[in-house]
Design a protein that fits this description.
The chain starts with 9 loop residues before the first strand and ends with a helix. The chain has two domains: 1-20 and 46-102 and 192-377 and 412-443, 2-enoyl-CoA Hydratase, Chain A, domain 1, CATH 3.90.226.10; 106-191, Pdz3 Domain. The protein is built from eleven helices and 21 strands. It has helices at 26-34, 43-59, 66-79, 90-101, 128-131, 153-160, 216-231, 250-258, 304-314, 403-423, 425-442, and strands at 10-11, 86-88, 103-106, 109-114, 117-123, 139-143, 146-147, 167-173, 181-186, 188-191, 195-201, 204-209, 237-241, 248-249, 265-271, 278-281, 293-297, 319-322, 330-336, 342-351, 367-368. The longest helix has 21 residues, at 403-423.
């Protein structure tokens, strides 16, 4: 089951920091002084805070416990900084770890909400849900004995997840079936794959990355190797699809870019403290051996996606095609606190190899492409007249008339191209560009 985070994340592996606070003295004061940060307490503001706290405790229409008030104060303090900083309680912290690892105990269903019920978007291949025959469009109205109506999506997702080997019974309403029915599933270890791939045409591959998780770099290499095996040799070109990819782990983005960039900087990160500054460089060869690349992006491509697109664009390794990206050029660091809670805090900005900050600007595609749909033109149904149709035409000088076979092959290819254009016009245009780049390279 995919769980979509409310925020776009770039998590810095290995930069998680525990904070101990000693007011006015001790380790915190020493560190603050060394960084030029004042430790003077804002007494007037704190006095206002305590007064508001007391007013709520005494006068609010219903009793509120201290823990709730203080947690809400922390949330407000952090969320007021920028759209991506947040306080994470125990369940939110757990959800974040699940989202970045891509592994959890559950049923294997991608879900959403519709009319207060959980709607199945798609079962994941090879999971308990897929094996039990759960279908796209099914509505889940009850989880064990608990009605779904009135539940939030997060609560429903949490209830469906659980320890491997445990069971849960779903009550399902399906279009075309007269009455609700139940399905009992056994939870299993679910691994959500962020990388999908297939061949567009002989020699030309397609890889889609939906988000950046711990295993995305390795999965990309496996996908390219699979395409090469299917092609029985090196690829002539590759479409890398990062559309609507909201981001994820910084390290995963670096690994993806590193698979294609042979040398130089991939990304640099700059913040206020020395701990926040880092620079990542290419350290391996190009898995495509120089074959042309087109990267598809749009307004939903953010964060880690923009790191990859920016690195490939600055290195002139790929042509960026599509629409201007989201423009999230900041880095969030997870700072674990006590009680399995954490702070997700914006600690730095990142920069492309040429030194560009894309914060609030995004990556401008090399070839802009509108979000359009195409359909086959309605013709007269009469094929145009050709030389071979003329009475008494000369036979081809090669000694064999293959015009009919060639025409059939052309018609088949045209049908396949039209199918791709109708289903995914940007991918169709990317494939056409790849073919042109390959022809130029081989001339």
């Amino acid at each position: 089951m995919k769980v979509f985070s409310r925020y776009t994340l770039i998590l810095l592996a290995g930069v998680a920091i525990g904070i101990s606070l000693a007011i006015g003295q001790g380790a915190f004061a020493d560190r603050a002084q060394s960084q030029g940060v004042t430790t003077t307490l804002p007494l007037n503001e704190l006095r206002t805070f305590t007064e508001v706290f007391a007013r709520i405790k005494n006068d609010y229409v219903e009793p509120v416990d201290d823990k709730t008030l203080l947690e809400n104060a922390i949330r407000g303090m952090i969320s007021g900084l920028d759209p991506h900083s947040a306080y994470l309680d125990k369940s939110e912290f757990q959800e974040l770890r699940i989202g970045t690892s891509g592994e959890f105990g559950g049923l294997g269903i991608e879900v959403g909400m519709e009319d207060g019920f959980v709607k199945v978007i798609a079962p994941i291949d090879g999971t308990p849900a897929q094996k039990a025959g759960i279908k796209s469009g099914d509505l889940i109205i009850r989880l064990d004995d608990t009605p779904v109506k009135g539940m939030s999506l997060n609560d429903a997702v949490s209830k469906m997840r659980g320890k491997e080997g445990t069971k849960i019974t779903l009550t399902i309403v399906r279009e075309g079936v007269d009455k609700p029915f139940t399905v009992t599933l056994t939870r299993a270890r679910i691994k959500v794959h962020s990388v999908r791939s297939h061949m567009l045409e002989p020699g030309f591959g397609y890889v889609r990355i939906s988000h950046f998780q711990q295993h995305t770099g390795d999965d990309l290499l496996k996908a390219v190797a699979k395409l090469k095996k299917e092609n029985k040799g090196d690829l002539k070109g590759l479409v890398l699809d990062l559309r609507n990819n909201p981001g994820g782990l910084l390290d995963a983005a670096v690994e993806v870019a590193n698979a294609f960039v042979q040398h130089g900087t991939i990304v640099s990160v700059r913040g206020r403290t020395p701990d926040s500054n880092l620079e990542r460089h290419a350290s391996s060869g190009d898995v495509l051996h120089g074959a042309p690349m087109v990267v598809l992006v749009n307004g939903g491509s953010a964060s880690a996606s923009e790191i990859v697109a920016g690195a490939l664009q600055d290195d002139k390794r790929a042509v960026i095609m599509g629409q201007r990206t989201f423009g999230k050029g900041s880095v969030q660091t997870i700072l674990p606190l006590g009680g399995d809670t954490a702070v997700k805090l914006t600690t730095a900005r990142y920069y492309t190899p040429s030194g560009r900050s894309i914060q609030a600007e995004g990556i401008t595609p090399d070839i802009p492409l509108s979000d359009v749909k195409v359909a086959a033109a309605q013709g007269s149904g009469i094929a145009p007249l050709k030389e071979k149709d003329l009475t008494g035409h000369l036979i081809n000088g090669n000694g064999k008339d293959q015009s009919n076979a060639i025409e059939k092959a052309d018609a088949k290819k045209a049908k396949e191209r039209l199918s791709l254009a109708e289903k995914d016009y940007p991918a169709f245009e990317a494939l056409n560009l790849l073919k042109g780049l390959y022809l130029l390279k081989t001339q």
